[in-house]
């Protein structure tokens, strides 16, 4: 609990100094491991050899110093060598009053940094797969948190829109007829299109010849070829945009920075590396050996910059991206939300970029990797036909399922309103299932679990929010409540909810600086469940008197604001009724 820590740290330091502990050694104050014991704790075990006393004695000594100093702020107790510090109701009440007045619920803004967040990044004329869904959802949450903390953010949708496959794709487009092909792509049948092209490429020599010539024309900047290429890109983007708009992510056409955008910088990447003398020849290809990587035979592994035929690689484009993001956009932070299989690629690219001076110590490059989405058999999620799942179908199915649930749970919600709520629940469920699992782990895609109104799910959080909205509708009290006094923290359930509410800002910071949205999810779930037991045990509208009623309404309002702000940072909507 960061704000409690700030409130007590000077006194803790003084008490430790009194016992003879100062400097580095005195950095012992941290979160308590068992919530019931306290919010913060000072473990005294490491002090025993220095003070030549038992941890139990030391904890007791410090407690007797500290307890009077923290009266009105926190209760202090010594338990088995730990000094436990637990916020007092009076301090919680004051903190809640401050939060009520604060639109930002305690979340501070930081010294602004400039960040490029590379996310989503599907490939033109190929289905966006669930990996791109994860990148889109996680990347978007990180962007929202960065903006909320006051940073400047460039969203970079690094779509794969360039390279040799485009020769074959353009020829296939011509075979189908432009209009037919455009229809097929615009409808989202991207995989079908790609596979047909690939099948011809594998069997038809004439087609291979045409595809090769087409690549040459594309790279040579032939007008008609470029126009056909644009058809492919535009139609695919039309489909991707449909997915983005269903998902409600921030990405727009302005954020597209596909591979083709860095074309002009590729010769420069080569010349910069060459001027530094780090470019080497390997069978005609130009490569850099960043050191530290070996292939299966144990030989040093190069990063290939330019192939023997003059073509450039994925890595070359990523080096060009770094030049662009650092030098043109002035970014300090380069974040890449991309699946774990590309780990080595990014490590090598970052290393070469450092060696080439494209980044210096002031720049942070971070590969924000994530695990796979699995089916119930633990295999990579695919459609029944074994193909990549069409994301629009997946999202539509979630909305349909959510609509069925609403129809059952609350038949009075109908028509347009039901559809709108179903969208918020269905889309929220898919996003939350993704965000709430630890980022680097795989997770199993499970409709029943993600759409459940119980457990760590978005419907559970959204329902808690809607429930509070309904309390306020019945109370005739207007929100947001700003000035409520006194705030009364009497019952254990009130205290638990209060202790969780004051933690919001530190949990947002923690989720952002570890790029771990799941921490925010776990926290929001803990708020919603503390609210559920509060609401069960502490009557709000029928409270014994007006003061208690207002105080409890203030707790309700803060809970609602915490849930909706937290969910909005994750990119999830909160309907007022469901
Ligand atoms: N288009 C790539 C893929 O689908 C992801 C690109 C990630 N971004 C990057 N700067 N390399 O695998």
Name of the top-level CATH class of one domain: Mainly Alpha
Mean pLDDT: 95
The residue ranges in which pLDDT falls below 50 over 5 or more consecutive positions are: none
Instruction: Give the overall form.
Output: globular
Q: What percentage of residues falls in helices of 4 or more residues?
A: 40-55%
CATH superfamily grouping of one domain: Isoleucyl-tRNA Synthetase, Domain 1
Give me the oligomer status: single chain
The overall strand count is 13
Strand content: 5-15%
Secondary structure category: alpha/beta
| Hetero compounds | arginine
Give your account of this protein's structure.
By secondary structure, the chain is α/β, with parallel strands linked by helices. Among the domains are: 2-87, Gyrase A, domain 2 (2-Layer Sandwich); 165-250, no CATH class; 458-569, Isoleucyl-tRNA Synthetase, Domain 1 (Orthogonal Bundle), CATH 1.10.730.10. The protein has helices at 2-18, 48-51, 55-69, 89-101, 130-148, 165-176, 178-186, 190-203, 205-219, 223-247, 266-275, 314-328, 343-355, 391-409, 415-436, 447-450, 458-475, 492-501, 504-513, 517-537, 546-569; strands spanning 30-31, 40-43, 74-79, 82-87, 114-118, 152-156, 280-282, 285-288, 303-306, 333-337, 364-368, 373-374, 443-444. It has a four-stranded antiparallel β-sheet. Strands 6-5-10-11 form a four-stranded parallel β-sheet, sandwiched between helices. The protein is globular, with a radius of gyration of 28 Å. Bound molecules: arginine. Residues 118, 121, 123, 158, 160, 318, 321, 336, 338 line the site of arginine.
């Amino acid at each position: 609990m960061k704000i409690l820590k700030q409130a007590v740290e000077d006194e803790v330091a003084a008490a430790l100094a009194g016992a003879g502990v100062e400097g580095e050694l005195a950095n012992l104050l941290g979160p308590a491991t068992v919530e019931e014991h306290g919010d913060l704790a000072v473990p005294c075990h490491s002090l025993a050899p220095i003070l030549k006393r038992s941890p139990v004695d030391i904890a007791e000594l410090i407690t007797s110093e500290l307890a009077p100093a923290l009266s009105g702020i926190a209760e202090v107790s010594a338990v088995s060598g730990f000094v436990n510090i637990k916020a007092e109701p009076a301090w919680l009440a004051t903190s809640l009053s401050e939060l009520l007045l604060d639109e930002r619920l305690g979340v501070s803004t930081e010294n602004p940094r400039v960040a490029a967040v590379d996310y989503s990044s599907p490939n033109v004329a190929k289905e966006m797969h669930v990996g791109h869904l994860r990148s889109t959802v996680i990347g978007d949450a990180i962007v929202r948190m960065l903006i909320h903390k006051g940073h400047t953010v460039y969203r970079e949708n690094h779509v794969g829109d360039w390279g040799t496959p485009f020769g074959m794709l353009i020829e296939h487009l011509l075979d189908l007829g432009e209009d037919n092909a455009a229809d097929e792509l615009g409808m989202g049948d991207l995989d079908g299109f790609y596979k047909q092209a690939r099948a011809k490429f594998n069997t038809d020599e004439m087609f291979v010849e045409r595809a090769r010539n087409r690549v040459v024309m594309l790279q040579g900047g032939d007008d008609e070829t470029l126009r056909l290429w644009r058809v492919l890109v535009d139609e695919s983007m039309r489909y991707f945009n449909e997915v983005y708009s269903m998902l409600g992510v921030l990405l727009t056409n302005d954020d597209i920075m596909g591979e083709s955008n860095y074309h002009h910088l590729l010769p420069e990447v080569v010349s910069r590396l060459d001027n530094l003398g780090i470019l080497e020849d390997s069978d005609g290809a130009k490569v850099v050996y960043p050191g530290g990587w070996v292939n299966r035979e144990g030989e040093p592994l190069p990063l290939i910059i330019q192939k023997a035929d003059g073509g450039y690689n994925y890595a070359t484009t990523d080096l060009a991206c770094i030049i662009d993001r650092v030098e043109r956009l002035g970014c300090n932070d380069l974040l890449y939300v991309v699946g774990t299989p590309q780990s080595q690629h990014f490590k090598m690219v970052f290393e070469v970029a450092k060696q080439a001076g494209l980044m210096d110590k002031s720049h942070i490059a971070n590969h924000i990797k994530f695990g796979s989405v699995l089916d119930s058999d633990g295999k990579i999620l695919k459609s029944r036909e074994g193909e990549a799942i069409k994301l629009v179908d997946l999202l539509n199915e979630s909305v349909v399922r959510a609509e069925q649930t609403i129809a059952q749970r609350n038949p009075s919600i109908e028509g347009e309103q039901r559809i709108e709520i179903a969208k918020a629940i269905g889309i929220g469920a898919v996003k939350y299932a993704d965000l709430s699992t630890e980022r680097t782990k795989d997770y199993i895609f499970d409709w029943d679990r993600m759409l459940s109104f119980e457990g760590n799910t978005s419907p559970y959080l959204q329902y808690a929010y809607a429930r509070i909205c309904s309390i306020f509708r019945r109370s005739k009290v207007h929100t947001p409540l700003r000035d409520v006094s006194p705030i009364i923290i009497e019952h254990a359930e009130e205290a638990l909810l209060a202790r969780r509410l004051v933690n919001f800002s530190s949990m947002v910071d923690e989720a952002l600086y570890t790029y771990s949205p799941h921490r925010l999810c776990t926290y929001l779930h803990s708020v919603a469940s503390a609210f559920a037991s509060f609401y069960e045990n502490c009557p709000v509208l029928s409270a014994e008197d007006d003061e208690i009623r207002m105080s409890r309404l203030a707790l309700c309002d803060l809970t609602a604001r915490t849930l909706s702000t937290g969910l909005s940072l994750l990119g999830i909507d909160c309907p007022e009724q469901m």
